[in-house]
Amino acid sequence: xxxxxxxxxxxxxxxxxxVKAGDIHTVELDRLMSNDGTTHLxxxxxxxxxxxxxxxxxxxxxxxxxxNIPSDSPKTAASHKKMRDFAREHGIDFWEGKGVCHxxxxxxxxxxGELIFGADSHTCAYGAxxxxxxxxxxxxxxxxxVTGKSWLLVPETIRxxxxxxxxxxxxxxxxxxxxxxxxxxxxxxYMAMEFVGDGMKNLTMDDRISMCNLxxxxxxxxxxxxxxxxxxxxxxxxxREPKHCFKSDEDAVFAAEYDIxxxxxxxxxxxxxxxxxxxxxxxxxxxxxxxxFLGSCNNGRLSDLRVGADLIRGRKVHPLVRFLVVPASNEVxxxxxxEGIIQTFMEAGAIVMNANCxxxxxxxxxxxxxxxxxxxxxxxxxxxxxxxxxxxxYLASAATVTASAIKGEITxxxxx
Length: 416
Fold this sequence. Notes:
Blueprint: H1 5-14, E1 24-28, E2 31-35, H2 39-48, E3 61-65, H3 74-90, E4 93-96, H4 101-108, E5 115-118, E6 132-135, H5 138-147, E7 149-153, E8 156-163, H6 172-183, E9 191-196, H7 205-213, E10 222-225, H8 229-237, E11 256-261, E12 268-270, E13 278-280, E14 291-294, H9 296-299, H10 302-312, E15 322-325, H11 330-338, H12 341-348, E16 351-352, E17 373-376, E18 392-395, H13 398-407
Helix pairs in contact: 2-5, 6-7, 10-12, 10-13
């Protein structure tokens, strides 16, 4: 029996010839990422709960401060210091104030065929480079950090065969929100979501990262894409080589398969308070907003900022709206400065922030109050995600978010 991409990566990490969905295997991890959301808890357990604390292979660890940076309180500052001091003491690769963890990982570490644990649910973004990335809690992270290994239940795989090309004004963000709406927030629970087909050649690396990143919102264990020339060009431009370039076998078994013509996708909005409560953006026109957010590990890349800048150039942010623009990394920020994108946003009245999780995390920047409405390119919109429990969060593409920031209500770019 053939194997899927997910099964092949797990088999290689387990040192066996084959695996199948439902098997449990002990696997060797290639890389372990943790951010300031939970790393302080991992450190406390390491120092206080282990009889023989040690790190199996410090070269596999990457620690990133991105959720509350700069720190928002003395409590956060103490947590950051604990993380900073531990990383320095043990020689862990450490990033602070350089961007969102998943963007930093894609820019600097992830290789096709790797098995990566991240102490963050959106680690599935790494599938855009053909790596099995999955989010874990700090206890599982600690075990992997100390042993270099963990166990995995081999997931079933749902395959999405993409054909055609997205129409002008429609983006990968609209595509993945459409898919989540189609299968539901639990539609891929503990499964791998695999994307293949001729339509892939029409999706950039930014598009692919955005799609894989959001798959956890359908409950997915991971997301995966075949490694093609687009992925290899991205990898080689950054001086890296693949570990493995896997494709699913023709006789691989899939839990379900969907055929999606990209030309049928339209601008989408996810309504409060569920990511899978999606409607065509045209059906949400006129909803008044108080704040708009362009950024996050899902839509803070250069192509997203370009889309927003092209729309807002020569226009102004609505006087009753705060529009926060947050690049996903310093690399993105610097490129946006060189292209004049940052200047364009500032001239329009947007608030440009340092590269971090920002509003998506809802803890340190742009927190919204009771009764306020946010339209966001962030990853989630559950109750209280961006601030007060009585606030509302709509999710949309960079184009729809920017157009809404200009008009002061939810609108699409073609309506400006």
